[in-house]
């Protein structure tokens, strides 16, 4: 009885606290992918609550009914080996539940790994999002713009984020638009998102990456396509071009505010995809490989910035 | 001076200096105490050189409890730092070191020795054996674990603690981003302890398969022994992967290879895969023996046989197979695509089925029972609802598309704590209360015990339930601080209160041990719980040979049948008993491995070579030593038996 009361108390406390708050970010989706995920989450919470209640009820019943204090002193519990039918039910029902969840899970997997429905008519907006300790660099190759630590996106187009890292593994996450994906140094991963409505959202690196991890966040602003185009134009009028030297400076470990540039670093420092990917070996071109290594080491040491132009373009 | 600079703490704080002083004082106090009370000889003869599985078990448990408090102190510091937004109690570097050591200490140096300690104490008694198959190897296992644990624990006062998380993902853990020797400690200390665990795995597999009492077929083994057998099979398959991964990581850090580096063809993803190919089965190495403990405790205090013995065994075998097929769910977000994620999503959720079977079997064991809620039983009854919450959230995490939202958040942290604390820690506490009388000859206080159980259970709920919500609200794990506007404050404050509750609960257990040691009755007989399995059929304290004569096993509950149905367990006459001799070699090897590891961590190559040779020297000595053990004569056995109340 004590047990039930304590658990009930805990549930009530949590429920009271809950109702007093804003909706939880993940359950307040602002894009189709986040909505798929929020639906899965809410559905599974209900289903799992059902299981929890069944288990709690059975436990409470057993503890209530078969306590030693409720029985005769000379009562000897029987020897029961098990019953094939009872156990078949105990296996069968969970199998059905897992089968149902698997069905949903597989469908959702293909949904979140593709351009969301309703956005297929337009080419997705490709944004290269790369992390360095402890910043995010957003390159818009189509618009020829690069930003640091903030992201402007239009609402009418699907978004295709190409993720990679100039350091430890990070994870690109905008909870209200959709779940996260890793950004790694030796390959590019793709995350499909889209924003339904204009608004401002929190974005961050979710994967621990060292001392500056907690502050490794970025702001996301979704706006109408017209506003987005205006922003692009304005950037081209006002912002300075990004240079290789400038970019090397940005890569230095530390925190930066928001920054805007024209051009992208992809021109002189391509993303690790295709033939640039980290674990692709180019057999028969050992000299190039050597040169490549030197380049990397210099980057790591942050020395001899002047020399970089000699190595660029591979 | 230059030589000593490497041992300095790269990022010191007053708390660390205070710890240095405290460690120094405690060490002096221990040395002084042992000398003053003339206990060096006793310590050496009875404990440091022992090969007795019961004493090794107790030493494992003492280590585990010490490490519980070390890891617990880390936890309190973390929760205190996060209790309020923008708190300045710890800076980022200290917070990173603390959560890294919290994870490693709790999993590898608390939960593992707790489990292995009970395996050591209980398994030979449950199967009617006189010791494990390889008693000296068993001692070596313990001393390697202990050397590894101590080596890891000195990191924060010598050279700096690891700070790349307990998962130690590369390239973060590589020299470029983790410059202190901290991650060397991680690689080497876990390697040493892991070798010990691998030996334990081989030892207990052999023991359980070859040394059961006459008549005890596999399907008549007690459930804890079954769980231990399966856990040790998993150890033997999983730990070599860890050994290799750690060796590659060591090579990367100390010898300039590029297995996991992000340049020159290295693959950071390879580390993640190797780590979790070991790491996920590791979870089941912990949880299966815990399930075994619950099976023993629930059956004893429901006063009934375990319901569905065969399906219990089958579900554990299935879990052990599935445990090797789910590792990718630790990084659904690594970009392997919908097909791979779908496969691992299904295998992950499938584990819920055999686990569910076990929950239902425990519930049906209560059916028509005569339930007595003692402290061990209370832990088991609190385990079922709390673990169910942890378990179903695990199924939710298994839905890979949704996992993109849970991954790396407090939701995940809440899930695995709600699984590991009710699952493993409650089981270990239940076992501590349950086996305490067999180990020490008195019972722990029931009133204090039950109070502690309630405080710990409520503390667990308060500490971890809020994390489900803050995770869904976007709080990533491993953040040392957060802004006021994020709205995470209230959840983290509740968590902090819960963490304090847990601290009080564990303090109550320590007080209980002290209180019971002083006031508890010593006249408790050898079967204080009216239990059912073989470990309760021998005397308390258990004589070094465990059983004077071999029991004859006819059922799963031989001792119960002996007591209630008159099927005599012990029919033979006493004969002389063959026992292994004590040896100092395992302890010495532990010390050598400690210094070897220390040299390795600081890249001091000359001592490393010397101690490598010394370790091989010990192995050679052990190999050529001609020691066939000793016999305990019939008279001696009879004398011991009479002293303990007569032969059974």
Secondary structure elements and pairings:
The complex is a heterodimer of chains A (314) and B (648).
Chain A: H1 2-19, H2 32-65, H3 84-112, E1 125-132, E2 135-140, E3 145-148, E4 150-154, E5 159-165, E6 170-174, E7 178-183, E8 189-193, E9 199-205, E10 217-223, H4 225-238, E11 240-241, H5 244-251, E12 259-262, H6 286-301, H7 308-311
Parallel strand pairs in A: 1-5, 4-10, 11-12
Antiparallel strand pairs in A: 1-2, 2-3, 3-12, 5-8, 6-7, 6-9, 9-10
Helix pairs in contact in A: 2-3
Chain B: H1 2-5, H2 14-36, H3 40-48, H4 53-82, H5 92-126, H6 135-153, H7 182-210, H8 223-255, H9 268-301, H10 309-322, H11 337-350, H12 352-366, H13 375-398, H14 400-406, H15 410-440, H16 446-472, H17 489-519, H18 558-565, E1 577-579, H19 585-601, H20 605-624, E2 630-632, H21 634-643
Antiparallel strand pairs in B: 1-2
Enzyme class (chain B): oxidoreductase
Subcellular location (chain B): Cell membrane
Domain Cytochrome oxidase subunit I profile (chain B): 38-554
């Amino acid at each position: 009885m004590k047990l039930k009361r304590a658990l009930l108390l805990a549930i009530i406390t949590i429920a009271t606290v809950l109702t007093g708050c804003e909706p939880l970010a993940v359950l307040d989706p602002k894009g189709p992918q986040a909505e798929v995920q929020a639906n899965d989450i809410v559905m599974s919470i209900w289903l799992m609550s059902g299981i929890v209640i069944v288990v709690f009820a059975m436990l409470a019943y057993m503890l209530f009914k078969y306590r030693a204090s409720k029985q005769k002193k000379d009562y000897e519990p029987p020897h029961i080996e098990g019953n094939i039918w009872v156990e078949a039910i105990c296996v069968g029902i969970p199998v059905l539940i897992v089968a149902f969840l698997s069905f949903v899970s597989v469908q959702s997997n293909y949904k979140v790994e593709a351009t969301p429905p309703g956005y297929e008519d337009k080419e997705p907006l490709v944004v290269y999002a790369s992390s360095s300790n402890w910043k995010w660099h957003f390159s818009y190759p189509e618009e020829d713009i690069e930003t640091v630590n903030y992201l402007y996106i239009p609402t009418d187009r699907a978004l295709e984020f190409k993720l990679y890292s100039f350091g430890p593994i990070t994870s690109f996450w905008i909870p209200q638009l959709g779940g996260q994906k890793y950004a790694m140094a030796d390959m590019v991963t793709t995350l499909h998102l889209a924003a339904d409505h204009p608004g401002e959202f929190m974005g961050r690196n979710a994967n621990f990456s060292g001392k500056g991890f907690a502050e490794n966040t970025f702001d996301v602003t979704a706006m109408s396509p017209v506003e987005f185009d205006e922003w692009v134009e304005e950037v081209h009028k006002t912002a300075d071009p990004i240079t290789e030297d400038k970019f090397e400076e940005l890569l230095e470990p530390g925190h930066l505010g928001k920054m805007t540039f024209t051009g992208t670093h992809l021109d002189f420092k391509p993303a690790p995809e295709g033939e640039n990917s980290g674990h692709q070996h180019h057999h028969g071109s050992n000299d190039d490989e050597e040169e490549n290594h030197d380049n990397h080491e210099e980057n790591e040491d942050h020395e001899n910035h002047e020399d970089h132009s000699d190595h660029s373009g591979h | 001076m230059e030589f000593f600079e490497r041992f300095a703490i790269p990022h010191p704080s007053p708390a660390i200096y205070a710890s240095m002083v405290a460690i120094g004082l405690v060490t002096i106090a221990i040395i002084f105490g042992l000398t003053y009370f003339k206990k060096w000889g006793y310590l050496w003869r009875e404990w440091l050189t022992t090969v007795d599985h019961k004493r090794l078990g107790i030493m494992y448990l003492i280590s585990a409890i010490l490490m519980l408090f070390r890891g617990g102190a880390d936890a309190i510091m973390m929760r205190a730092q996060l209790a309020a937004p923008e708190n300045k109690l710890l800076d980022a570097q200290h917070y990173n070191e603390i959560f890294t050591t919290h994870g490693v200490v709790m999993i590898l140096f608390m939960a593992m020795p707790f489990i292995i300690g009970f395996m050591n104490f209980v398994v030979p008694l449950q199967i009617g054996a006189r010791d494990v198959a390889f008693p000296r190897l068993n001692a070596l296992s313990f001393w390697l674990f202990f050397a590894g644990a101590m080596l890891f624990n000195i990191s924060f006062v010598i050279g700096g603690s690891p700070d790349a998380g307990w998962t130690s993902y590369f390239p973060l853990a590589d020299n470029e981003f983790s410059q202190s020797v901290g991650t060397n400690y991680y690689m080497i200390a876990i390697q040493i302890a892991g070798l010990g665990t691998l030996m334990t795995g081989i030892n207990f597999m052999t023991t359980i398969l070859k040394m059961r009492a006459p008549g005890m077929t596999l399907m008549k083994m007690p459930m804890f022994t079954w769980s231990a057998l399966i856990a040790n099979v998993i150890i033997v398959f999983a730990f070599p992967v860890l050994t290799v991964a750690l060796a590659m990581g060591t090579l990367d850090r100390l010898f300039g290879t590029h297995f996991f580096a992000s340049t020159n063809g290295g693959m950071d993803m390879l580390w993640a895969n190797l780590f979790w190919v070991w790491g996920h089965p590791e979870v089941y190495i912990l949880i299966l023996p815990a399930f075994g403990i619950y099976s023993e405790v629930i059956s004893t205090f429901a006063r009934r046989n375990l319901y569905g013995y065969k399906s219990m065994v089958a579900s554990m075998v299935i879990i052990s197979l599935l445990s090797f097929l789910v590792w990718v769910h630790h990084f659904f977000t690594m970009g392997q695509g919908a097909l791979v994620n779908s496969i691992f999503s299904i295998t992950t959720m499938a584990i819920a089925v055999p686990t569910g079977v076990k929950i239902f079997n425990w519930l049906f064991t209560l059916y028509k029972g005569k339930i007595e809620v003692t402290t061990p039983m209370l832990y088991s009854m609190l385990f079922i609802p709390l673990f169910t919450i942890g378990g179903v959230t695990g199924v939710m995490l298994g839905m890979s598309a949704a996992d993109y939202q849970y991954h790396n958040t407090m939701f995940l942290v809440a899930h695995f704590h709600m699984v590991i604390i009710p699952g493993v820690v409650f089981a270990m506490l239940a076992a501590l209360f349950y086996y305490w009388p067999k180990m020490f000859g008195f019972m722990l206080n029931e009133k204090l015990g039950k109070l502690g159980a309630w405080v710990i259970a409520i503390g667990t709920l308060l500490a971890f339930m809020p994390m489900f919500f803050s995770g869904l609200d976007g709080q990533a794990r491993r953040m040392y601080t957060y802004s006021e506007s994020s709205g995470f404050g209230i959840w983290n404050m509740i968590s902090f209160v819960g963490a304090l509750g847990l601290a009080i609960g564990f303090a109550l257990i320590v007080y209980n041990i002290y209180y019971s040691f002083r006031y508890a009755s010593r006249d408790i007989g050898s079967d204080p719980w009216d239990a059912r399995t073989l470990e309760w059929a021998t005397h308390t304290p258990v004589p070094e040979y465990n059983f004077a004569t071999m029991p004859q096993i006819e059922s799963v509950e031989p001792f119960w049948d002996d007591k209630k149905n008159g099927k005599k367990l012990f029919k033979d006459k006493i004969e002389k008993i063959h026992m292994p001799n004590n040896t100092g070699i395992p302890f010495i090897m532990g010390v050598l491995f400690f210094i070897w590891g220390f040299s390795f961590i600081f890249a001091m190559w000359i001592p490393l070579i010397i101690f490598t040779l010394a370790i091989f020297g010990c192995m050679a000595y052990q190999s050529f030593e001609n020691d066939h053990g000793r016999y305990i004569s019939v008279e001696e056995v009879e004398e011991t038996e009479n002293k303990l109340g007569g032969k059974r």
